[in-house]
Specification:
The complex is a heterodimer of chains A (about 500) and B (about 500).
Chain A lengths: L10 H19 L6 H25 L11 E3 L4 E3 L1 H24 L6 H20 L3 H19 L6 H32 L4 H9 L6 H18 L8 H8 L2 H26 L10 H20 L4 H21 L9 H34 L11 H4 L1 H15 L5 H15 L3 H26 L14 H16 L4 H13 L4
Antiparallel strand pairs in A: 1-2
Helix pairs in contact in A: 1-2, 1-4, 2-3, 2-4, 3-4, 3-10, 3-13, 3-18, 4-5, 4-10, 5-6, 5-10, 6-7, 6-8, 6-9, 8-10, 9-10, 9-12, 10-12, 10-13, 11-12, 11-17, 12-13, 12-16, 12-17, 13-15, 13-16, 13-18, 13-19, 15-17, 15-18, 16-17
Chain B lengths: L1 H18 L2 H24 L15 E11 L2 E9 L3 H18 L8 H20 L3 H22 L4 H28 L8 H9 L11 H19 L8 H8 L2 H26 L1 H6 L1 H20 L4 H22 L2 H32 L7 E2 L1 H4 L1 H15 L5 H14 L7 H27 L4 E2 L10 H19 L2 H18 L3
Antiparallel strand pairs in B: 1-2, 3-4
Helix pairs in contact in B: 1-2, 1-4, 2-3, 2-4, 3-4, 3-10, 3-14, 3-19, 4-5, 4-10, 5-6, 5-10, 6-8, 6-9, 8-10, 9-13, 10-13, 10-14, 12-13, 12-18, 13-14, 13-17, 13-18, 14-16, 14-17, 14-19, 14-20, 16-18, 16-19, 17-18, 17-19
Classes of the chains: A mainly alpha (about 500), B mainly alpha (about 500).
Main location (chain B): membrane
Subcellular location (chain B): Membrane
GO cellular component, one term (chain B): membrane
């Protein structure tokens, strides 16, 4: 039996980084992008390798309590590979793979394709590292590594005013929130004398009374930094602009993978570094307020939109609110117990399902942009009879996002709300259910436009882009299969979430 | 395994038809839909369940129970099986789906493969609703039925189809949510670790319920009963929750109306029987008087509304409200004939209302109008269709030797003898008066449209209907007569399944 070195546990992240470098190498050999298939193929293979590693490690118990050795810590605890990190890495890999498959068609006839794919790969690497970050310093670096390529990707359509404007807005708010985040870290360091999450936790528990205020403001500012990455209130307002202006595959990438990455590091930092019982850092109320405000604001704003992409952007904010329930109702009960991970695990499972359905929905928008049918709900009228397969897939995404039963989104929301009720926060679940019911209104508008409304004029669809079709259909199949196949997902998520607090 | 085979095959058939070319979709769908009919008849012939599926001492037929996943400490299973209450409804669902598909050949002239695919998709989910015995599984099928129905109304419906479809969807979806919350409130405070309906039913009656939200166990039970009753009452529909029904029926294409009246409404009464009246009999008997008032008001008010309509389809739609009122009255009686008769009425009304909607549809295909004042003397031109329509109408009025008579007779006798409903004879007498109104509006409408000199306000050539239009009518009429002459085809197994409910409901 071969004994692997510890750093091999970083394979999912390394695979993405190496793929990014290989893409740059290909670009230097063939700078004219004359082989788009090769570029897309390399990117997809890289993400699949990453997914394969993450899946294999999850299944074989690497870094997990059940059947494994427990969390593997690397580089003097700066990084840690545990079940949660692997779970999120699998989510990023799936989303990135879908985005790369779809980009093949989207990028046709455009310049700088190799740069596009390698930026996506580096951003994904940053996300994969975010999931493993075990110190505030690595969390910050990884967050920047994920963010900087994203700014460039949003501005990828550089002759399009909307794209550039979106990128600038995204960048400015990103820079501001990075500053807030860094300042928060420095305050936490000032109070505790450490950046390692475990040391921060023990220092906070035994904190001198005089430093409580400093630590509390630090925690608050760190939360603000994560709010930017997860597109939650109060740092959410870049999201509609960025998602609308960016190329649709990048919108999918940002709203699914990047958001999940924000949650990965948010969950880890708050559950391991900031113990609830320490003086002045009772953050549960904070996240309860943020969850309620975020989901309500996202939903109501989504209901008033006229363009599908913008509606999806606001719905993405709403879903950030649902995912925040995972922290807002986190009981921090007996360490290692299954109940402890129940609601957090449900939140993680929701992010996985969301990765499929939301990516799929944005990719359908990419398909519509490719066909040039227009952006509003009315422009989608009659697509159902012209592109039945993609429209069926979009119908699946919409119903699943709304949480209607026969799809994956039903179970993930259900577990989330049931977990909240179980933890004693039935009012949080109630707000979630009401929001979820209301969301059916604007999701069903898309379905109605696709199938029921008659098209305004005659129009022809320009061909069927294979890559986009494959990605959309694959996402739909994933969304459907997550209903019968939800058992392993939720069990894995809950057990790795329970293992988060040793 | 046969239940899985039936559901799986029907889903697969839906997929195949969806991908088939429009020209063959109708014929293909009808051919494929015959297999579930054969399968359900085979189930009927091999049926060996005893007692009630949810109560002690009951044994299921064709049972499968496989764990699916565990949620917050509760086990969710793939748990299906049938007893004497569900089997007749399964046969009804398969037979009526096939015939509805056949009746759709003429009126559906666009996007056929989608239409017939959705019909089969709906059938598969209906089979799931009537066989699932795990709450989650059941709820998934229950909600999944709405989706195809929404599209059937919204795409192939009449002029106000979008309004009707969205109204249908919103009404029934909100009702489902209220019911869902009611049931969850029960289960979360109950001493069980599964969503299996039998386990929940047993635990509820053994007193394993603890209070919650500041309510005592009894108050919680009552609140949950009210939430579930409200949720199902919208589906049935019970007056005053019926307003979505006429819109949906009038706008829906005829085959969808047939499924809506014939099978979808029965989901509501089936769920009422399974959940409210079997799981919480103490609350049901305590408030039997109130429920009986709802039932009788539905019967009389629905019939009066039907009397006031000029649109043939609206008449049949409102008369469904009236007929479903009888079902509620029978259920709350807690007597063998009452509950058994109510279950039998679900099947009988499914057949007869399906027959009526189809017959009206066939006339509409030819005349392009459904207004009573626009035509008369149709009997002259369409003797077969009109003959069957008249026979069906008499079935509605409770002509002896037809299924409607057997069902209503059972219900009235059962309700009259009920020891649960206060002043039961009075309620029964008032409800029976509903029959008189039914006879009134049906005879009136038929006299004006079908008989007398021929006159038609629209410019269409009236020809005899095709065989594939009249064949489903004939089959339904034969089924109605067969069940009227020999109710024991279903009534024996229904009695077997409802008897255990009476013991817990305090009825005789």
């Amino acid at each position: 039996m071969v004994v692997y070195p510890d750093w091999a546990a970083l394979a999912p992240a390394l695979a993405l980084a190496v793929t990014g470098l290989v893409l740059l190498l290909i670009d230097s050999v063939d700078p004219d992008d004359s082989r788009p298939g090769l570029l897309a193929g390399t990117a997809v293979v890289g993400t699949l390798v990453s997914l394969g590693y993450a899946g294999w490690f999850l299944a074989s118990g690497t870094g997990q309590v059940d059947g494994g050795t427990g969390a593997i810590s690397l580089y003097r605890d700066a990084l840690v590979v545990d079940g949660m990190a692997l779970f999120f890495q699998a989510v990023f890999a799936v989303v990135t793979a879908l985005v790369c498959i779809a980009s093949y068609d989207y990028l046709k006839e455009r310049a700088y394709q190799a740069e596009f794919y390698s930026l996506v790969m580096f951003a994904a690497t940053g996300m994969a590292v975010m999931a493993t970050a075990n110190s505030l310093a690595t969390a910050f670096i990884a967050l920047e590594l994920a963010s900087l390529p994203s700014y460039a990707l949003v501005a990828f359509l550089k002759h399009n005013r909307g794209s550039v404007e979106a990128s600038l807005k995204y960048f400015l708010i990103g820079a501001l929130s990075s500053a807030v985040f860094a300042f928060g870290i420095s305050l936490v360091y000032a109070a505790t004398g450490s950046l390692l999450l475990a040391d921060v936790a023990s220092a906070l528990s035994a904190l001198d009374g005089g430093l409580t205020g400093v630590a509390a403001i630090g925690v608050l500012m760190v939360a603000g930094g994560f709010a930017f990455k997860t597109a939650s209130v109060p740092f959410h307002f870049w999201a509609p602009e960025a998602y609308e202006g960016a190329p649709a595959p990048i919108s999918a990438f940002l709203s699914s993978a990047s958001k999940a990455a924000g949650f990965a590091v948010l969950f880890r930092v708050f559950t391991t570094a900031f113990p609830l019982d320490a003086a002045g850092v009772d953050w549960m109320l904070l996240f309860q307020v943020l969850a309620v405000v975020t989901m309500t604001l996202g939903n109501f704003a989504a209901a008033t939109q006229e363009t599908v992409k913008r509606m999806l952007a606001y719905s993405s904010i709403g879903h950030a609110g649902y995912a925040l329930i995972g922290l807002a109702a986190w009981s921090g009960g007996a360490p290692g117990s299954v109940e402890n991970g129940a609601v957090l695990g449900a939140s993680m499972a929701h992010l996985l399902v969301y990765g499929f359905m939301n990516t799929g929905a944005f990719l359908f928008v990419a398909l519509a942009e490719q066909w040039d049918v227009g952006r509003t709900f009315e422009d989608y009228a009659g697509l159902g009879s012209r592109a039945p397969m993609a429209s069926v897939a979009m119908t699946v995404f919409m119903f699943s996002l709304a949480g209607v039963p026969p799809f994956g989104g039903f179970f993930s929301k259900l577990f989330l709300f049931a977990g909240a009720v179980d933890a004693g926060f039935w009012w949080l679940a109630a707000v979630g259910v009401v929001n979820s019911t209301l969301s059916l209104y604007y999701y069903s508008r898309v379905v109605k436009a696709l199938w029921v409304d008659d098209p305004v004029g005659e129009f022809e669809l320009g061909g069927t882009p294979t890559g986009l079709y494959v990605a959309v259909v694959f996402a739909a199949v994933g969304t459907l299969l997550l209903l019968p196949g939800f058992a392993p997902v939720i069990e894995t998520a809950q057990s790795v979430a329970a293992a988060l607090v040793p | 395994m046969i239940i899985e085979a039936l559901i799986g095959f029907t889903f697969l058939a839906a997929l195949v038809v969806m991908l088939a070319p429009d020209e063959y979709a109708g014929r293909l769908a009808f051919g494929l839909s015959l297999l579930p009919v054969v399968g359900s008849l085979y189930m009927w012939s091999q049926f060996d369940a005893t007692g009630n599926a949810l109560l002690e001492g009951g044994s299921l037929a064709f049972e499968t129970q496989v764990p699916w996943l565990t949620a917050a400490g509760y086990q969710i299973q793939w748990f299906v099986g049938v007893d004497g209450i569900s089997l007749p409804l399964i046969v009804l669902a398969t037979v009526l789906s096939s015939l509805a598909i056949l009746s759709a050949w003429t009126p559906i002239d666009s996007r056929q493969s989608q239409f017939f695919g959705l019909m089969l998709f709906m059938e598969a989910n209906l089979l799931g609703v009537f066989t699932a015995l795990d709450f989650f599984l059941w709820f998934v099928f229950w909600e999944a039925v709405l989706v195809p129905m929404y599209f059937l109304i919204a795409i192939w419906g009449g002029p106000r189809r979008k309004y009707a479809a969205i109204k249908f969807f919103v009404y029934t979806n909100i009702a489902s949510l209220i019911m869902f919350i009611g049931f969850m409130a029960l289960v979360f405070n109950l001493d069980v670790n599964t969503f299996g309906l039998p386990a929940v039913a047993v635990a509820l009656r053994s007193g394993g319920l603890s209070g919650a939200f500041g309510l005592s166990p009894t108050a919680l039970k009552t609140a949950a009963f009210a939430a579930m009753f409200l949720g199902f009452a919208v589906k049935v529909p019970v007056v005053p929750f019926h307003t979505w029904l006429p819109d949906a029926h009038v706008e829906a294409p005829t085959p969808a109306s047939v499924m809506l009246a014939g099978v979808l409404l029965k989901m509501g009464t089936y769920a009422l029987l399974r959940f409210n009246f079997t799981m919480l009999p103490d609350v049901a008997t305590q408030y039997a008087g109130v429920i009986a008032i709802f039932a009788v008001v539905s019967v009389i008010y629905g019939a009066l509304l039907a009397l006031a309509q000029q649109d043939l389809k609206r008449i049949v739609a409102y008369s469904s409200v009236s007929s479903m009122g009888y079902v509620i009255l029978g259920l709350v009686a807690y007597t063998q004939l009452g509950v058994g008769g109510a279950t039998f009425q679900m099947v009988a009304h499914g057949l007869i209302s399906g027959l009526m909607f189809m017959a009206v549809g066939v006339i509409y295909n030819v005349t392009h109008t459904r207004m009573v004042g626009d035509m008369s003397g149709m009997a002259d031109r369409m003797p077969v269709t009109v003959g069957i329509l008249v026979a069906g109408a008499f079935g509605y009025m409770g002509l002896p030797l037809m299924a409607g008579f057997a069902a209503e007779y059972f219900i009235f006798q059962g309700a009259f003898a009920s020891s649960v409903i206060p002043v039961a004879p009075l309620f029964t007498a008032v409800a029976m008066f509903g029959i008189v109104i039914v006879a009134g509006y049906l005879l009136l409408a038929m006299q004006r449209t079908l008989f007398g000199p021929f006159r038609l306000e629209t410019d269409y050539e009236v020809t005899r209907a095709e065989l594939h239009d009249t064949l489903p009518l004939m089959v339904l009429l034969l089924c109605t007569i067969a069940l009227g002459v020999a109710p024991d085809i279903f009534f024996t197994m229904i009695k077997e399944a409802v008897t255990p409910i009476l013991a817990i409901g305090g009825g005789a």
